[in-house]
Amino acid sequence: MIAERLGVQPSSLSFHLAQLVHAGLITQRRLSRQLIYSAEYGAMNALLAYLTENCCGQDAVCVTACNPSDAFTKGEADETLSGARQC
Question: What is the pTM of this model?
């Protein structure tokens, strides 16, 4: 579970995940009683590109894209049951 892995209360995590879904940065689908969250890399890359273009200083070094393959080791799925990726 994401909450256990991050050490946050499930109610707090639910709030934050709902905001990420609302922003289009992740998707949520239900499988029986489980919620499956998936990253929306196109939206994340667009957000990072915008922030890089508009928020980074002239001489600042900013990464412009998230590479999904860096987030998981070989063999892990693109979706995780109640899991999240970090880039």
Answer: 0.60
